[in-house]
Amino acid sequence: MNLESKVIIISGASRGIGRATALLLAEKGARVVATARSADELKTLEEQSGGRIVAVAGDVASEADMQQVVQTALDRFGRIDVVINNAGYGVFKNVDELTVEEWDALMATNVKGTFLLTKAALPAMKEQGEGHIIVVASDVAKRTFAGGSLYTASKYAQEAFMGALRKEVRPLGIKVSGVYSGLVDSHFHAKGQGHETSQNWLKEKDMANALYYIVSQPTHVVIDELMIHPLEQDY
């Protein structure tokens, strides 16, 4: 499907899944507003897209920054069709090893950031009578593991947030989709991208293709949930 008329905001777009998705959606014709904290990496992304991507540096944990991202999209393009909440990271330790600072910082990005960008975009979507909120969560929004208390708590929180939001906005013509991925070969993991142990994991492009599939559905179709794993991962 051609995305020529779509205006899409993506957080965490400076690298990884966010970057791959921004480039793919721009290639498919969307007008993409990309945000992340790294202004330099965003500038490179903007240049690489040939002008299809508008970069706005900002912290998803800052209400003012997310309002600015949304306002930029409205000023440049007049509407917002899709918000992809992709920004996030992980800290993996036993509970008694976690610090309060680690807890607060991760929750600010993974959970508060999802709330703030979504909240900033909703008034425009309500006025339009349509829109689409997507959250790139994880399969650990539905399971737990030792050493993952902080990360899984953030993903369970995103899951609950999506569930309640879906009930609020579905009658208004606004879609809500959750993406639950398994292992992805990216900078996210401690051994680094391209390590021999992750050769058969999902690739960033796989995730970008999944997100393209979701946003390219016709108006009357919503992909409520998409669970995606590499074949080698037990499920």
Automatic annotation (TrEMBL):
Stored Pfam families: adh_short (PF00106)
Domain of life: Bacteria
Domain Ketoreductase intervals: 6-187
UniProt entry keywords in alphabetical sequence: Oxidoreductase
Database matches in PANTHER family: DEHYDROGENASE/REDUCTASE SDR FAMILY MEMBER 7B (PTHR44196), DEHYDROGENASE_REDUCTASE SDR FAMILY MEMBER 7B (PTHR44196:SF1)
Family: Belongs to the short-chain dehydrogenases/reductases (SDR) family.
Stated name of the protein: SDR family oxidoreductase
Species of provenance: Nibrella saemangeumensis
Organism lineage: Bacteria, Pseudomonadati, Bacteroidota, Cytophagia, Cytophagales
